[in-house]
Amino acid sequence: MTKLERAVKAAEQLPEELREKLGDDLLHYIDRYLALRDDLRAGLRQLDAGEGIPGDVVFAGLRKRLGS
C-alpha cells in the first residue's frame, strides 16, 4: 500500500468537514505543483532555444532587489 493510499484510508476516518478541507488543500497543492512543473518546462525550453536572460543579469537584479 502506498503512502497516498494509507493517507486516504486514514482520512476516511475523519469527520466529513475535515475530509473536505484536506481534499481542498490537496487539490490546491497538486494544482500549484503541476503549474510550477509546466512553468519550469516552458522555461527550460526557452533556455534551450537561447531565449533566456543571461544568468549574470538575473543574479545582479536579484542582488539589487534583495540587497545582498
Summarize the structure.
The protein is mostly helical.
Number of domains: 1
Helix amount: over 70%
Shape: elongated
| N- and C-termini, Cα separation | 47 Å
Mind explaining what this structure looks like?
The structure is a single chain. This protein has one domain (3-66). The chain has three helices and no strands. The protein has 68 residues and is mostly helical.
Topology:
Blueprint: H1 3-11, H2 16-48, H3 55-66
List keywords for this structure.
79% helix; single chain; mainly alpha; 0% strand; 68 residues; 3 helices
